[in-house]
Design goal:
By secondary structure, this protein is α/β, with parallel strands linked by helices. It has one domain: NAD(P)-binding Rossmann-like Domain (Rossmann fold, 3-Layer(aba) Sandwich). The chain has eight helices and seven strands. It has a seven-stranded parallel beta sheet, sandwiched between helices. α4 links the parallel β4 and β5. The longest helix has 22 residues. The radius of gyration is 17 Å and the shape is globular. The two termini are 27 Å apart. The model has no long low-confidence stretch (mean pLDDT 96).
Length: 279
């Protein structure tokens, strides 16, 4: 499966994508692995976040969907969560602001009483051919959105997360194999993997696990919104499977890490990369 050259304005929308990504709407079948759990998913409106939200709901979790301003995408994700019989809470806002991170957690606690699962998945990237053309403001925004938000969300959620809680960061294959034209993004994804490894050690005595997932090339709105046409057209061909992954292909890993079945899995970086090794 490949995709035609296409462009969108950031942050991009699912509706405008060709082909439409598969989030597991018709394929994911739950088995009660997250029954009664309360989850926060950032970047939950589309892409990997939507696939995780659908899977979590079908596994029995209520979900707060944090997103920037993609209201139509967020409402569609909420519809799938509610069709699964679970509560969906929508929370728009820019996670580059630490106050928004705290407000996300406050809203989840107000609605759910606690948080059992935090998935820090929201991200920003932009392609640049040289270091000099990266604006200072964009560098700061990328670090704030991708990396600092993970810290602020985690710090805010800990008083409301008990034993058995799970924190999951979305890292990337770029953490191990950085793409030079995505330098700020790649740096943040390496930071997420490193932070998660530290968190696993700091939080073990509280009974809270921390892990990260390293996706390879996945077909989400971020791609046509942040890459030039020719890179969109060939996106995914660089990995051994020679195709981009679908968001639905990531969801089972996020489910496993959130579930009690992964009670001895902490400090892990799990690659979902279409065959490209991460060492």
């Amino acid at each position: 499966m490949s995709q035609p050259a296409q462009q969108q304005d950031p942050p991009g929308t699912t509706e405008a994508m060709d082909p439409t990504p598969d989030h597991g709407e018709e394929s994911y079948r739950g088995s009660g692995r997250l029954t009664g759990k309360k989850a926060v998913i950032t970047g939950g409106d589309s892409g990997i976040g939507r696939a995780v939200a659908i899977a979590y709901a079908r596994e029995g979790a209520d979900v707060l969907i944090s997103y920037l301003n993609e209201d139509d995408d967020a409402r569609e994700t909420a519809r799938w969560v509610e069709e699964a019989g679970r509560q969906a809470v929508l929370f728009p806002g820019d996670l580059a602001d630490p106050a928004t991170c705290r407000a996300v957690i406050d809203k989840a606690v107000e609605e759910f009483g606690r948080v059992d699962i935090l998935v820090s998945n929201a991200a920003f990237q932009m392609t640049h051919e040289t270091i000099e053309e990266i604006p200072d403001e964009e560098w700061n925004h990328t670090l704030a959105t991708n990396l600092s938000a993970f810290f602020h969300l985690t710090k805010a959620v800990l008083p409301h997360m008990g034993k058995g809680g799970s924190i999951i960061g979305s890292s990337s294959i770029n953490a191990d194999n950085p793409v030079p034209t995505l330098m700020p993004y790649s740096a943040t994804k390496a930071g997420i993997a490193n932070m998660t490894a530290s968190m696993a050690q700091l939080l073990a005595e509280r009974g809270i696990r921390a892990n990260s997932v390293a996706p390879g090339p996945v077909w989400t709105p971020l791609i046509p919104a942040t890459m030039p046409n020719e890179q969109v057209e060939t996106f995914g061909r660089q990995v051994p499977m020679q195709r981009a992954g679908q968001p639905a292909e990531l969801a089972p890993v996020y489910v496993m890490l959130a579930s009690d079945e992964a009670s001895y899995v902490s400090g892990a970086l799990i690659a979902v990369t279409g065959g490209q090794p991460i060492l």
